[in-house]
Amino acid sequence: MTQRAQRSARASGGDSISGSVLEVLLVFLKLGLTSFGGPIAHLGYFRAEFVERRRWLDDREYSDLVALCQFLPGPASSQVGIALGLGRAGWAGSLAAWVGFTLPSALAMILFAQGVARWSTLAGSGVVHGLKVVAVAVVAQAVWGMARSLCPDRPRVAIAILSALLVLVLPGAVGQVGALLLGALAGRWAVPTADPMPAKPIEAGVGRRTGAILLVVFALLLLAALGVSGGSSTLAAMAVFYQAGSLVFGGGHVVLPLLQAGLVPAQWISNDVFLAGYGAAQALPGPLFTFAAYLGAAMSSVLGGWSGGLIALLAVFAPGYLLVVGALPFWATLRRSGSAQRSMAGAQAAVVGVLGAALIDPLWPAAITSGADVGLVIVSFGLLVSGRVSPVIVVMAGAAAGWLIGGGQGIWSG
Q: Which tens digit of pLDDT belongs to each residue from 7-42?
C-alpha cells in the first residue's frame, strides 16, 4: 500500500494497517531500552526513528500528534507511541507499542521494589538516601523548566502561584484536583491567547463512534475511581493509580504528588520507600509512569509483588490509552477551539503550582535532613539545569554521595 493510499484509508476510516505487530513491538522495545532523559527526550527519539529513519509519517503529522498528546492528560510520550502503533498495525499494534516501550523500565522497577521488601535496611541506607535527595533536585528541575514554558505571562504565573497555595492549604487529592479545575476555568477567561497549533490535523483510523465509546468508558471509570475512598482493598488502591493517570498534565513528574497524596497517608507505603523508588526511576529509560509498577510491587497491605506491580501499571496507563485513542477522531475539530486551548493553558499553569507545592511539602522535609543534603541538592540541580548532565549520571553520582554522607553505610548493612 502506497503512502497516499494509506492516508486515504485512514481518512475514510478504512484499514490503515501497513506493518506487522512484531515490527511495532521490536522497534518500541529498542526505544524502551535506550530512551533516557524523560518525555521531551523521548519525543526526540521518536521523531528520529519514525519520521527520519522509518518514514511512518511526516513532520507535520508528527507535530500534530505530539500537540494532541500534550493537550490530553496522561504520559505524552507513551500516548504518542500508542497512536503510532495504532496507525501502523491496528489495535494490536497500539498494545505492542505500549508493551515494548514500557516493559524494560517496569520490570526493573518491580525488581527494585522486591529488593526493598527483601532487605529491610535498603530503604534506610545511604545509597537510597542519596536517591531521595536527587529526587528533590529532579522535581526542582521539572518545576523550573515547566514554569519557563507553561507560564510565559502574568495570568499564568498567577494561576501557578494560586494553585500552589491551594494545594498547600488543602493537601491531598482534593486540593490537587481543585487546582487543576480552577486553573482550567481561569485559563478560559484570563489567558490572552492560545498557543498556535500545527496547520495540518492528524488523520485518525478510529471512527467517531468508537472514539466516543472510549471517552465515555474513561469518564465512567474516573467517576467510579473518585467514588472509591477509604478501606485497604485492591480496588481502592487501583482507584488511586487510575485517578493519577487521569489527572496528570505536563509530564511524568506530576504523577508524583498525586500518587504520594493517595498512597502515603493511607499507610500503604512509607514516604522513604516512595521517594527512593522515584529517585531510582530517574536512572531508567522509558516512561516515568512505570514508577507505578514499583509502588504496586512495594506496597505491603494491598497489592504487592509482581502481580501488584502489574496491576498498578495497568491502572495508571489505562486512562492515557483510552483518552488518546478516543480523542483522535475528534482532534481536527477540537484543535480549532480557542476556548479549549485557553482552558488547557490554564490547567497546564496549575500543574506548575501543584508540582511546586509538592516540592515544598512533602519532598523537601522528607529528604533533606542536613546541610550536606542541601549541598547535594544544589549541586545536582546545577548539573541538571546549567551543566545539562544526563539524569542517569546525576542519579548515580547522588547515590554515591549519599553513601558517603551516610558514612559509607552499605545497602545490606545494619
A: 444 443 334 456 789 999 999 999 998 876 667 667
Other beta carbons less than 10 A from residue 102's beta carbon = 23
CB 102 within 8 A of CB 374: no
In one letter, which amino acid is 301? S
Q: SS3 for 67?
A: helix
- On the CB side of 169, CA atoms within 13 Å amount to 8
Which cell numbers hold the place of 116? Answer: 526493598
Helices (H), 170-304: 173-190, 208-227, 234-247, 255-263, 271-281, 291-298
Residue 272 lies in a domain: yes
- Tell which wins on pLDDT, 247 or 95: 95
Query: What are the pLDDT digits (tens) for 206-227?
Result: 888 999 999 999 999 999 998 8
- Find, among 401, 384, 275, the residue nearest to 37 by Cα: 384
274 — phi, psi (to 5°)? -60, -50
Nearest to 20 by CA among 81, 90, 103, 82: 90
Report the candidate in 113, 130, 131, 122 with the shortest Cα–Cα distance to residue 290: 113
Give helix 76-118 / helix 59-71 axis angle, nearest 10°. 60
Give domain status of residue 286, yes or no.
yes
User: Which structural domain range is residue 296 located in?
Assistant: 121-405
Give the chain's domain count: 1
Environment class of residue 85 by beta-carbon count within 10 Å: exposed (0-12), middle (13-18) or buried (19+)?
Answer: buried
- Are the CB atoms for 71 and 342 separated by under 8 Å? no
Reference 72, options 287, 412, 341, 295; nearest CA is 341
User: And the C-alpha cell for 169?
Assistant: 492549604
CB 122, CB 128: distance < 8 Å: yes
**At 72, is the secondary structure helix, strand, or coil?**
coil
pLDDT in tens, 184-204: 899 888 887 655 555 455 555
Of 135, 403, 372, 382, nearest to 271 by C-alpha is 135
pTM, two decimals, is 0.72
Take residue 128 and report the three cell numbers written for it. 537510597
Place of cell 523548566: 145
> Does residue 22 sit within a domain?
no
The answer to the question of residue 377 being in a domain is: yes
Provide the grid cell at 335.
484543535
Whole-number Å distance between alpha carbons of 30 and 100:
8
